Amino acid sequence: MTKDVRVRFAPSPTGPLHIGGVRTALFNYLFAKKHNGTFILRIEDTDQNRYVEGAEKYIIDALNWCGIPFDEGVDKNEKFGPYRQSERKHLYKQYAEELIAKGKAYYAFDTAEALDAHRKDHEEKGKTFIYNWHNRLKLSNSLSLNAEEVKAKLDAGEDYVIRFKSPQDETLHLKDIIRGDIKIDTNILDDKVLFKSDGMPTYHLANIVDDHLMEISHVIRGEEWLPSLALHYQLYEAFGWEAPEFAHLPLILKPTGKGKLSKRDGDKLGFPVFPLKWTDPKTNEVSRGYKEDGYFAESVVNFLAFLGWNPGTEQEIFSLDALIEAFDLERVNKAGARFDPDKIKWFNHHYMQEQFNEDLAEAFKAQRWELADIDVNYIAMVIDLVKERATFVSDFWDLSHYFFTAPTEYDAKASKKAFKDGTKDILTQVASIIEANEDFTAEALQNEIKGWITSNEIGFGQVMMPLRLALVGALQGPDVFDIIYMIGKEETIKRIQNVIATL
Questions:
Q1: Which end of the chain has the lower number of beta carbons within 10 A, N or C?
Q2: Strand order across the beta sheet in which 105-108 lies
Q3: 192 has a pLDDT exceeding 90
Q4: Domains in the chain: ranges and CATH
């Protein structure tokens, strides 16, 4: 690429960052790093009515947890600051007025009541009201009024908005990296509001001005902004600025594949749609987060990368560095990407196996009061034996509780299967072998007990099933001899005696 790559993620602080927003941030980050560029965070808070306390911090915390921190933005390397649009509002009016001076925009004085009346009139006639070339001269604006009338209204302090003057009978030829060439008939476009009566710009004006002033080279954003592309291209042209390249990412769809993924889908099907837990400051409603639900950040990032992008190979496991190396906007799909809650669990299971046992042990210990007095090194050894079957740290207790506390009851179906005539005598002899064994290692115990089974021509199942039941309380768990070694000789014999007495 000939120009420096500068991309921005520009969320609104109206609540927690949706997982779709994280995907947009991730693709911007991957593209920037692939091309040695800059990833920028800009907070688009022009709509102060929807501003939510704590949302901006949540966005930054979420990006940091995912391992995709911004290079430049709010309170960080403020090369083109400020990076909150509310702190830049003094900039926008002059650009709106520049468009008026160029004949590309105009003042509109229509009241909300007048516009509502026009809409109702159109609806009664089976039409849709659009404010543009076909009716703008019949409405109250600086195109239909003479200069004196306009000045009088402005001098009187009447409320107004500034609208873009969309052209008539033109065909726009737009380019999108993902979607290719797009043709738009300007006759179907409405004259969008650029500047509101409250003195704040709309998203359309503010984001174009900011992208230009911050020297954004590529705008990578969600598909929902595709209908705005025509206006944004025209604004660049109206200002005489070079437009950035655009890429509109596909929607993230519900698990059914129909419709856009929402928080309601997560609530209904039992999975988070936010990266971190969120507590609504107004209602105190708590929404689940991937971090608190036990997902690793690497799992979330790897999963999100595949929502709409594929590397063109069978490879699915990518570190962040590998994603940067492989990422290409040309390989992003146009079609929506189905969100699969089971697939992200699959990724989490994989990344579970890559974690250090010591780190997992600390996390596991913090979750269970039963482990408060247990040596973390012992817990790490237990985790090494069971983590192959775990997807979350919270799975460890069900998989390993018998390493920490003796079973108090025995699975009924397993008991019926394991205990037969003669089982009591077999277990009594096994306990004697374990008691007498001086080389107390898993390997030595295995050799001795298996040798005894073979020499006495006993079926392996006749010994191993009731032995496992005695140790675990069910017919599950890792190698029996690993369990015996871990819990120790005294505890093993006590559990064998207990199962004999009970069953």
A1: N
A2: 105-108, 161-164, 193-195
A3: yes
A4: 6-74+207-251 (3.40.50.620), 90-195 (3.90.800.10), 263-347 (1.10.1160.10), 355-396 (no CATH), 412-502 (1.10.10.350)
